[in-house]
């Protein structure tokens, strides 16, 4: 595996046509978390809003190093570009477009693993239908994994359980056990060009629970996909 010659070349798309469900937030933290573990990571901004590119620009202007590559391909050649580039990386993370059905679809065409983030708003859960139809259509001729991720949620609330149960009975996608809670650190870190792994609050403290949950998400993806961990490979 990640001997620096042969790459894993796994493409993970954070995809949901519904806007504002944490595709960009998850993409950036997932990409950075994987790079911290020693994988070679490419983060592809596949959204004309270019939020991931904006984040990388803020970071660059603040003079903060970044050990992963960020590019923008919010165009109809998204799948082709990713297919060309993936041989050079262990992971390509695509931050999919919101509200753009064709670009949402192309991120799914390009991926080996589709992660569909959802909040616990019933409106978001209903609006996920179009994205799941794209996943189903593409899975009818090419096999790839797809999962729901509950993100930006409060796990202790009743609505969390209700929407989670509704998703489980309504759609065939497995729901990841890992959950990303609603935490201000997630919004604040990106604004500073940082990730959850680096961000410190006004008291100089990192949000350890948030870091743990992103690490748990990475562990779960690696384990469900049978991807050997770097520390196990060396
Ligand atoms: N776990 C979280 N806790 C708190 N706020 C969050 C969390 N995840 C995302 N957010 C906030 O929710 C908003 C939407 O997140 P984000 O931009 O990542 O969603 P998106 O799906 O990429 O949106 P779009 O479809 O517009 O691209 C942002 O303001 C972000 O800071
Ligand atoms: Mg986004």
Report on this structure.
The chain is α/β, with parallel strands linked by helices. Helix content is 44%, strand content 18%. It has one domain: Rossmann fold (3-Layer(aba) Sandwich). The protein has helices spanning 23-36, 51-61, 78-85, 101-110, 122-127, 129-139, 158-170, 184-191, 208-224, 230-233; strands spanning 10-14, 41-45, 69-72, 91-95, 113-118, 145-153, 175-181. Helix 1 (23-36) crosses helix 9, helix 3 (78-85) packs parallel to helix 4 (101-110) and helix 4 (101-110) packs across helix 6. The longest helix is centred in the last third of the chain and has 17 residues, at 208-224. It is globular. It binds adenosine-5'-triphosphate and magnesium ion (MG). The site of magnesium ion has 6 residues, from helix 1.
Keywords for this entry:
globular; Rossmann fold; seven-stranded parallel β-sheet; binds magnesium ion; binds adenosine-5'-triphosphate; 234 residues; alpha/beta
| Radius of gyration from CA coordinates | 17 Å
CATH topology: Rossmann fold
Can you count the beta strands? 7
Counted by DSSP, the helix tally is: 10
The helix-strand sequence is EHEHEHEHEHHEHEHHH
Overall pLDDT level:
94
Task: Assign the CATH class.
Answer: Alpha Beta
Strand content: 15-25%
CATH superfamily: P-loop containing nucleotide triphosphate hydrolases
Hetero groups in this structure are: adenosine-5'-triphosphate, magnesium ion
Class inferred from helices and paired strands:
alpha/beta
User: Span from first to last CA?
Assistant: 9 Å
Number of domains: 1
What coarse outline follows from CA principal-axis ratios?
Answer: globular
Lateral strand order in the biggest sheet: 3-2-4-1-5-6-7
Unreliable stretches covering 5 or more consecutive residues: none
Proportion of residues in helical segments: 40-55%
């Amino acid at each position: 595996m990640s001997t620096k010659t042969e790459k894993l070349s796994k493409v993970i798309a954070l995809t949901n046509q519904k806007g504002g469900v944490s595709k960009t937030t998850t993409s950036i933290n997932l990409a950075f978390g994987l790079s911290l573990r020693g994988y070679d990571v490419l983060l592809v901004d596949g959204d004309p809003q270019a939020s991931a590119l904006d984040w990388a620009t803020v970071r660059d202007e603040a003079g903060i190093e970044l050990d992963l590559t960020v590019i923008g391909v919010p165009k109809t050649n998204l799948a082709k570009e990713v297919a060309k580039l993936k041989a050079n990386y262990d992971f390509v993370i695509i931050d999919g477009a919101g509200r753009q059905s064709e670009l949402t679809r192309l991120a799914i065409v390009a991926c080996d693993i589709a992660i569909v983030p959802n909040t616990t708003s019933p409106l978001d859960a209903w609006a996920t239908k179009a994205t799941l139809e794209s996943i189903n259509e593409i899975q009818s001729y090419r096999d790839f994994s797809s999962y729901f991720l509950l993100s930006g949620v409060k796990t202790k609330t009743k609505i969390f359980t209700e929407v989670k149960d509704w998703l489980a009975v309504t759609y065939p996608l497995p729901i990841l056990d890992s959950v990303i809670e609603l935490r201000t650190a997630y919004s604040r870190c990106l604004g500073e060009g940082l990730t959850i792994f680096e961000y410190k609050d006004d008291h100089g403290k990192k949000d350890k629970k948030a870091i743990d949950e992103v690490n748990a998400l990475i562990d779960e993806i690696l384990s469900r996909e049978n991807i050997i961990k770097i520390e196990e490979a060396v």
